[in-house]
Amino acid sequence: MQSIKNHLSLVVALLSILFSIQIFTIVDRSIEAYKEKLAMNYSMVVVSQKNLKTKELRKQHKLISYLEKLSPDSIIKKLDTGMSAKNIDFLKLTLPKFYKIKLTHFPTPSELEKLKKSILQIKGVKKIESFETTHNTTYKLLLLFKTVISTFSFAMIVVTVLLIFKELRIWQFKHNERMNIMGLFGAPVWLRSAVLFRLSIVDAFIASILGFVMFSIISSNKWVLDQFKTIGIEVVIFDPIFDFLFLLVIAVIVSILLATFIVLGHKEEV
Amino acid sequence: MDKVIVAENLSLAYSSDETIIKKVNFSINSGEFVFVTGASGSGKSTLLKSLYGALKPKEGSLVVGGVELKGVSSKKLNFLRKHIGIVFQDYKLVKEWTIEKNIMLPLIISGYDKTVTQNQVDSLLKHVRLKHQAGKYPLELSGGEQQRVAMARALAHNPILILADEPTGNLDEYSSQLIWNLLEGANQQLKTTVIVVTHHIPETMTIDYKHFHIEYGEIHAVN
Ligand SMILES: Nc1ncnc2c1ncn2[C@@H]1O[C@H](COP(=O)(O)OP(=O)(O)OP(=O)(O)O)[C@@H](O)[C@H]1O
Ligand SMILES: [Mg+2]
Q: What is the CATH number of domain A43-130?
């Protein structure tokens, strides 16, 4: 019972930090996935006198995925008021060319602005339509969502850290007593703190494993998966190897840091 | 004779405005058995604290086991403490460790191997009549039993110097006698120097001993 209580406070604190971090990771991944999805549906239209080639454009702009030539037929059809085939062919030659540009990812407004400017500098390019207002609204919404979640995770971590610092004084007191007694029998500082470091590393492992179990359950939960399906994106909620290792490393670093604080604050009483 | 402790013009204080021990001179030879008496608050525990380096001399010099404790480095102090066995007035047992592990502490610190440690602890538990309590935690024991654990821990590593602060303060007649026998035994058989703070020197003492009395910050030899 005593030993469970010893572990509980640090494990809960660590778990709460790990939870905030993983939630942030999931949101970040969702936004990236959503951006990709948006990029797939998003395109710009370029009007040019000369032929444009995907290869040449891509050399200048990594952002560009490919060009797609739009057939002028639909435009000509609108003008079709009984023109002869010969005239239509002539018209086709003189009409500027229309291209749809697909991008590799959803651009930021400034990326978009830069891209537009440089495409306009290409010889022959007359006009470019980037549907800017729609793009900017979507982008700002994404950004807002990300900011809200980041702030939330950050606040949660701050609150947890404050709680940990409050607990730290209790831990300090508790460990100080044992470290003092060990010191009175000549134990060097590393030996006095060995118990503490072992304890905190064990707690880090317990917290990571609990986190592993928790996120494994979440990532196979039907309701959660349905939410992502509704948005139409696929996201790795919890990678059982990489995410687990990442959380473990964070937990170990945090708990070693805390143990170090305790050791540094250790004073021999008279 | 080798001197284990030499104090010259030694003053001890917790703060600058009150000196507890004032410019005392005394020495203790290797293998001696010493009683320290004095009224409550006279500075008996304070003197012991200085002997294991928890309270540094304010003035003068104090040499224990050849180590000058004024301005001693923590490395040297740890080395010295490995050869001292202390029984504290408030026991100072580690609450989250079993009785057995508490007694093992000095052996673990000195790096003894497992079998030696286990044998030593078993024999000590027998000596202090606590064999059946080995797996319990300090707070599950009576005050007298805790004191016996503290005694066993002080003897565990065969120290050259034992410092005991009222080791029989909480004990009944029978247990007190047990402690005196252990201290006498260590002194006689292992030639351990023993310094005991007490209110009553037992009448049953069969060996020669020195007696220091502390009064008004001064230390007087009584016999
Ligand atoms: N940690 C401390 N900080 C400040 N003053 C202290 C401290 N410990 C003891 N003192 C003071 O030093 C004086 C001597 O205390 P000490 O504990 O040495 O007495 P003692 O002779 O052991 O008494 P007792 O027989 O009651 O154990 C007392 O006046 C006490 O108030
Ligand atoms: Mg005292």
A: 3.30.70
